[in-house]
Amino acid sequence: MTHRHTRRLLRTGLIATALLSHGASYAQQESAGGGQPPEGWGLGVVASASQKPYRDVDGKAEVWPMLTYENRWIRLFGPGLDVKLGKTGPVSYALTAGMSREGYRASDSSYLDGMDERKGGIWLGGRVMWEAGFAKLSAAWQADASSHSDGQKVTLGVERRFAVDNLGFTPRVKAIWLDRKYVDYYYGVSASEARSNRPQYAGSSTVNSELGLRVDYRLTPAQTVFLDAGVTMLGSAIKDSPLVGRSTVGEARLGYLYRF
């Protein structure tokens, strides 16, 4: 089997996992109030609505099946997989794998006509999480293992869950550093792609910031519904791209999860 075929099989497997688990990030936060993470399988459905920053590209609404699983060693969530490496007091460590659905096709809008396709990718890396008394802090590094952008990203996050009986609220703040290769791949315009209304553009590293809120309600010990909404403020190197038509992008997910 060639390297290309091996990589294609790996990508297909991760895409299938992502389709099943998209939107299930709620599952790993269910115990954020201080309990142990729940173990076992979860099954549900999630509906999402999201925007892309590209000029004249419409928002997208989708519905996905949702599969979650967690035990002592792994955590499946959407869209990705954590391999747990252990804990040191309140600090935990994990290797991460996930799939990005970023990018575009030239057919997505008339403005992108003549642009080469920009593909999503498989991202591998690691994460450190600290259960501080006042909040949950996290730091993650990931690199594009698909060799599409060859980019890297670093994410710093803070969140805290507040609970009132069966109702939970989890606000979050994130800062996402994106390196030059990432920005240039997804938002750059090469000389061959430049047009009179689309000048050549070379990306540089930048920082996006995100604000979000997750609300969950436990219907029964096994059943939960949740709503997760967030807005991302784009960094200057992305906003300056001629391909970009907005300074912020939003996403919302509404889901139902049954734990076995």
UniProtKB/TrEMBL annotation:
It is found in: Cell outer membrane. Residues 1-27 form the signal peptide. Pfam families: MipA (PF06629). Keywords: Cell outer membrane, Membrane, Signal. Belongs to the MipA/OmpV family. This is MipA/OmpV family protein. It comes from Viridibacterium curvum.
